[in-house]
Write a structure and sequence with these properties.
This protein is of the alpha+beta class. It is built from seven helices and seven strands. It has a seven-stranded mixed β-sheet with strand order 1-2-3-4-5-7-6, with helices on both faces. Helix 1 (about 20-35) packs across helix 2 (about 40-50) and helix 3 packs across helix 4.
Length: about 220
């Protein structure tokens, strides 16, 4: 089995029937990990599909294989790619990475100016996020929208979060800031231009020295 056996696409109304099974697996996965996620109903997940704010992976035999959806906070200033789940029978194929890349592209397309963020305890997710350009940050740099933090109430570590006054917890906070990324890209462009200019100047000086040496050699042989 390879990643080529799956169709990874923006979810739509045709996929709504998968919502109950997806929600059941989300709950079972969280229970197995001993961590919590914001519990979502099949109706909520189906709505995300209808809105075009979700990505689903479907095996060629028609079985759902993976899922992730978009949530917005602080009036659209922050976006989270939530509920990443892979059907247990299709794990170890690279679906999580493929789905994360697809939902990241969808989020950037729909909300180009929003900051993308996530909270996770999974090393694999942290690695994928890093590849996408996310960076570890403090909790204070995330959305302060109370509705988002209410979603942590279903987590077994919620007491730790409240005890630490929401400054940190067991999850690692990661953020993709498009403004900072644009600044970094511009700085890299300027640095590259400076480096290219140095190389051109160095070559010009080298050619000038060679030319002088050749002229000097020609005069010495006369």
């Amino acid at each position: 089995m390879t990643i080529e056996d799956f169709d990874i696409q923006v979810a739509n109304a045709e996929h709504a029937d998968y919502a109950p099974a997806i929600c059941d697996e989300m709950a079972e996965s969280a229970k197995a990990r001993g961590t919590g996620i914001a519990q979502r109903s099949p109706e909520y997940v189906a709505d995300k599909m209808l809105e075009g704010k979700a990505v689903i992976a479907v095996h060629k035999d028609g079985t759902w294989a993976g899922f992730c959806y978009i949530e917005t906070w602080s009036h659209g200033d922050f976006v989270a790619n939530s509920g990443l789940i892979v059907n247990p029978q299709y794990r170890k194929v690279g679906l999580a990475k493929a789905i994360k890349h697809k939902i990241f592209e969808l989020s950037r397309s729909k909300y180009p100016e929003a900051k993308l963020f996530g909270l996770t305890t999974g090393l694999a997710v942290m690695k994928i996020n890093s590849e996408l350009g996310y960076e570890p940050v403090t909790y204070s740099e995330l959305t302060q929208d109370e509705e988002f933090w209410k979603g942590c109430r279903s987590c077994v570590n919620y007491d730790i979060l409240t005890m630490k006054e929401r400054k940190n917890c067991m999850c690692t906070a990661m953020l993709f800031d498009p403004v900072e990324k644009a600044k970094d890209a511009e700085k890299k462009k300027e640095d590259d231009e400076q480096e290219n200019l140095k190389k051109i100047t160095h070559k010009a000086n080298l050619f000038e020295r060679i030319e002088k040496a050749l002229k000097s050699f020609g005069q010495d042989t006369k």
